[in-house]
Design goal:
CATH architecture of the largest domain: 3-Layer(aba) Sandwich
Shape: globular
Number of helices: 13
Strand content: 15-25%
Structural class: alpha/beta
CATH class of the largest domain: Alpha Beta
CATH superfamily of the largest domain: Response regulator
Length: 405
C-alpha cells in the first residue's frame, strides 16, 4: 500500500510525531480502518473522534483483544476532501481488506463512502449525529438523529422562548434535511419557521443574514451550521451587539467544539441538544473522562457526541465479533442485530435491529464559560424518525436514505 502523509497506522493524531507510525503489530492482528478528517478544515471534529476511537481500541487490546488477536488501526486522513474519502474507502475495502471501517464526519462524506463499502461488502460504522433516514444493513449508525434531539429541543425552545423560529443551516444534505425536521417539530410544538437560510461550508460573511434576522425579529434562532462558518457567524453576531439578544438553539453547536474556541461573550447562553456532553454527571462518564485524560493528557480535545458515539461504535463492533466468534461480516452483523448494548460514557447505547441506529439518552445543555451546564435529560430515546421508514428485519436488502417530505 502506498503510504502518504494522509495515512496513519496505530496511535492517535493527538500523539503523532510522524506521518506513519508502526506500533509493532503482528502479522495476524485484526486490521480495522478509520477515515476521519485530521486536517483540512474539519479537523476540530476529527481529532476528538480519533482520540476516542484509539481509547476504545486500546481498552480492547489491554483486555486481550478479540478472538485472541490484537487490533490495529489503519488511519486515513481525507483532509476534508470527498475525493480522498472515496479513494481511501476503496483502498480500505480492497488492498487493506479491513475487518470494518469507522469513518465519515459530514453526511456528504458518509454518502460518498457508504455505497463503496456496501459494494465491497466491508462492514461500516458511522458515528456522528446526523439527519436520519439511512437504511442499510451493511451500516451501523451510533450517533443521535432528529427525533432524539430536535424532537426534544424544539418543544423546549417554543415553550421557553416563543413561536417564531429562524433557521441558519449548512448547505448540504445534513443542513437541508435537518431543517425539514426543525420545521416539522416546530409545527408540532405550535410554532413556525419564518425563514431558513442555507450556507456553503466556506461562507464567512454573515452580515446580510444578521441584518435579515434583525428585521424579522424571531423569537429564537436555530443553527445547523457546520465547521468554520459556525465560528464566523457567532463572532459576527457578537460584534453586531446581538449576543444574548435572541435565544439561540442548535443540534450542531458544540459538535465542533465551538464553545471552546469562541469566547464566553460570543457563545455563553447558546443551547444545544446532544446524546452526550462531557459534563454529564455520572460514575460511568466521570470514569471515562478520567481514562481519556490519563491517555491523552489535560490538553486533549473536548469529547463531543461524535467522539463518544465513536467510542460506543468500536465496542458495538467488538460485541458483534465476540458474540459471532468470527470476523465474518454477515456473522458480525447478525450478532449485533441479535442484541448489543454498550454502557457508554453518555449512558446505555442499544442497537435497534430494524434500523441499525441506537436508542440513547439525550440532554439539553447551555454553554457557559467554555463548557455546558445540563438543563434537561431524556432517557433511552429511540431512533423514531428512521424507524418510521426503515425495517431491515422485514426488508434486509433495503439500501437507501429516506428523506422527510
Amino acid at each position: 500500500m502506498k503510504i502518504s502523509r494522509r495515512l496513519f497506522l496505530g496511535g492517535t493524531a493527538v500523539a503523532l510525531t510522524a506521518p506513519w507510525v508502526n506500533r509493532g503489530f503482528a502479522a495476524d492482528d485484526i486490521t480495522i480502518a478509520s477515515i476521519y478528517d485530521l486536517s483540512g478544515g474539519l479537523e476540530i471534529y476529527g481529532q476528538p473522534i480519533d482520540a476516542c476511537l484509539d481509547l476504545a481500541v486500546s481498552e480492547l487490546n489491554e483486555a486481550g483483544g478479540l478472538l485472541g488477536r490484537q487490533i490495529k488501526v489503519q488511519k486515513y486522513d481525507p483532509q476534508s476532501n470527498i475525493q480522498l474519502y472515496t479513494q481511501f474507502a476503496t483502498e480500505a475495502a480492497t488492498s487493506l481488506q479491513a475487518a470494518t471501517v469507522f469513518g465519515g464526519i459530514t453526511s456528504a462524506s458518509r454518502e460518498a463512502i457508504r455505497p463503496i463499502l456496501s459494494r465491497y461488502q466491508t462492514l461500516y460504522f458511522y458515528s456522528p449525529l446526523y439527519e436520519g433516514g439511512v437504511c442499510d444493513r451493511n451500516t451501523f449508525l451510533t450517533g443521535s438523529t432528529p427525533s432524539q434531539t430536535i424532537g426534544q429541543l424544539m418543544p423546549f425552545a417554543v415553550k421557553n422562548f416563543g413561536k417564531k423560529v429562524y433557521v441558519l443551516a449548512a448547505d448540504y444534505n445534513y443542513g437541508q434535511i435537518s431543517t425539514k425536521w426543525v420545521r416539522d417539530y416546530t409545527a408540532q410544538a405550535g410554532g413556525e419557521v419564518i425563514a431558513a437560510e442555507f450556507f456553503p461550508l466556506d461562507v464567512t460573511d454573515f452580515s446580510a443574514a444578521i441584518q435579515k434576522i434583525q428585521r424579522e425579529k424571531p423569537d429564537v434562532i436555530y443553527t445547523l451550521l457546520v465547521g468554520g462558518n459556525h465560528m464566523s457567524f457567532f463572532r459576527q453576531w457578537a460584534a453586531a451587539g446581538m449576543a444574548g439578544q435572541i435565544p439561540i438553539v442548535s443540534t450542531s453547536f458544540g459538535g465542533g467544539n465551538e464553545h471552546i474556541v469562541l469566547t464566553p461573550a460570543e457563545s455563553d447562553g447558546v443551547m444545544a441538544a446532544f446524546g452526550y456532553f462531557q459534563e454529564i454527571k455520572s460514575p460511568a462518564n466521570e470514569a471515562f473522562v478520567k481514562r481519556y485524560h490519563e491517555k491523552f493528557g489535560d490538553k486533549a480535545p473536548y469529547v463531543t457526541e461524535h467522539a463518544s458515539a465513536t467510542y460506543n461504535a468500536v465496542h458495538h463492533w467488538a460485541n458483534g465479533v465476540k458474540k459471532a466468534n468470527s470476523l465474518d461480516r454477515m456473522a458480525v452483523i447478525e450478532a449485533i442485530e441479535s442484541g448489543s448494548t454498550v454502557n457508554g460514557p453518555g449512558g446505555p447505547s442499544t442497537i435497534d435491529p430494524k434500523t441499525h441506529h441506537c436508542a440513547t439518552d439525550v440532554h439539553i445543555g447551555r454553554a457557559k464559560d467554555h463548557s455546558f451546564e445540563i438543563l434537561e435529560s431524556f432517557a433511552n430515546q429511540p431512533p423514531a424518525d428512521t424507524a418510521a421508514v426503515c425495517d431491515l428485519v422485514a426488508n434486509p436488502n433495503d439500501n437507501q436514505q429516506y428523506v422527510i417530505q
